[in-house]
Specification:
The chain is 40% helix and 20% strand. It is built from 18 helices and 16 strands.
Amino acid sequence: MDATADTLQKALRINLDPRWYGTIAEIGAGQEVARWFFRAGGAAGTVAKSISAYDMAVSDAVYGKSGRYVSMPRLQAMLDLEFHLNIERLDAERGDSNAFFAFADTVTARSFSGGNECHGWMGVKFQAHPHDEPSQIIMHVRMLDVEAALQQEALGIVGVNLLHAAFFQHHEPELLVESLLDRLTTGRIEIDMIELKGIEFRSVDNRLMALKLVQVGLSGAAMFGPDREVLQPSEVLRKKAILVERGSFRPPTVVNIDMLESALAKFISDPDVASREILMLTELTMANLLAGGGDVDRRDFLARADLLAACGMTVLISDYVEYHRLAAYLAWRTDGRIGMVMGVPSLMDLFHESNHAALPGGILESFGRLFKNDLKLFVYPMLRDDRITTVDDLSVGEDLQPLYDYLARRGSFVGLDNYKPDYLPILSRDVLRRIAGRDESWETMVPTEVGDLIKKRGFFGYHRTDE
């Protein structure tokens, strides 16, 4: 079945179901979602009103003034008002038989002159049953087609998918997320943030939904804050100086925190950083989360997420195993300085040519992409066999040593000489072994808040020694 037929079938299914009745409000790319319902037939049973307040003055008069028209606050204002109007105007007549909804999107598609970012916010506020408390799904989309007409088409399809999923799959949130790209490809639409809330989603942890976006390829990365709230990466990263540490954080140790703090002390000395707000990120890659088997262990993932939250960290989940891809992702979203924090073992691994075989230009192309925006690697020392290795005395092999020396001379590596020597012997896998073995010495190896939460929640097989 082709995309048109399948999308029309979804729209028709909604139109023929007597429960759903509401408003479709769209700004920025035509009435692309509403159009599917009118094409499918029977829309009079579903659409109470369609509206497109394109003029800013008109939009402000309807929804209130807004600093940014393509933003989550504007979308929320649209959803709240249209849903409220449906209840106010229609509840007495239809409330016993209809579940009301308000769908909205505010987007900027490709302009006539081109060159603009093509993205938008889309959401639905809906009752699952008549007279029910509302539930809501909000998401941020990026349209990747190069032609405006194709972007509009893709936007319409994903909007129908969203409404269909909200109405018929709200009880299965993960299937809901997977269905958003039905009859589309990741080359056409990217969804990098989704938030489910309300009575139907009261048991949903949106961090798992963020993980799902990356897991199924809807986005290359997703983000959430220490308050567990999902974040839209582009808005969070915009114009900031970024310091990111990649790791397993299983669990976060005092070394992980010292690496970031030591790097931060060096990072802020850069004149280009001093004038910027600095965002510190802890990054988990899908490759790391999948390392234990064929699927992500959700309990393990949430344990790591909760422990990083206890440390006040913002978490980035990415599908970018290669460092140059992570660098490109960040550089596309900020014009500020970018620093990556790693240990000497990770730097050594970076100089294994086999890790760059996917690129035609191999390690040279990879490093060219990684360091092109004056990105710097902040490197924490390594203790092995009672010997400390730093960036100043690291040997990477005879063939690649000249490349290493060149990058070191140009300042691409920043040695973290302000580390805490007592932390160097600490390894996450040793902490895990001690937790499982009921060796209480592990508690000195993690931040206090991490240790308290591991004991409280029983993470990583923790059992009290007196049990």
